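step: validate -> pass
step: tokenize input -> pass
step: predict -> running
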Amino acid sequence: MKGIKEVPTNRINPDGVSPANHSIIVEEPLEIYVNDRFYTLTMRLVGEEMPLAVGLCFTDGMIQSAADLKMIRYCNEETGNRIDLYFDKSSSEEIPVVRRGNLASYSSCGICGSELVMGVNASHKRIEERTFFTDKLIFQCKEIVENMQSVFRVTRGTHAAGIFDSEGNLLAFSEDVGRHNALDKAIGKVLLSKKTDKTSIVILTSRISYEMVLKAGRLGVEACAGFSAVTSLAVELASRMNLTLIGSLRDRNGDIYTVPSRITSSP
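step: predict -> pass
step: emit ->
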């Protein structure tokens, strides 16, 4: 299976130490260049590099849609560890190409959380309350994501993201070593398939932090739910965006932190 490598190990058990084999994730660096200028370096699970690059540039605000892309290609097909994206000049001149770690929306020093949230609030439209979801539908989407985690079942070491329409139909799914990469990959798939107008629900296997809410909100979904905990900034940002945020999805339980009016009880 792509993205998985079998390695020899020594396993500790009640009888002592014995040789064994273990499946691990194949993690590689990916360089992303925009208009022949270095943009960022990220670590990822091997595979789906193009959707990852497109999704990351979209959630960072570099492009507004797949229509802004003139070309996307592997710089070196042999390693697949560099992606080149080319934007229309009008797009790239409006948004300067900078190293991703310097973007204010991802800064972790020199700016406080409230300033981050207020800055996003000023540049993003509030999400309209158009759709109502049953709790049953949310858990059905959760089960779909769980069942599709083929790499996680073998390695127990990946995160996953699923994007659904308002009726619970899967639009995109991805796994990766990093939770941000998994969501960026799934968003990239939606962009490339031109289905952004159908997106409604994001399901994450990870905790939901400020950055994850920012990505989901930029996509324009109405609900973002995760298997794990949420952070305080995630709640504050989701509230300002009018995004329904749900955390700790386990069994048939979950916590709705913002805009609970979109979620209705199943009959």
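step: describe -> The chain is about 30% helix and 35% strand.
step: cleanup -> pass
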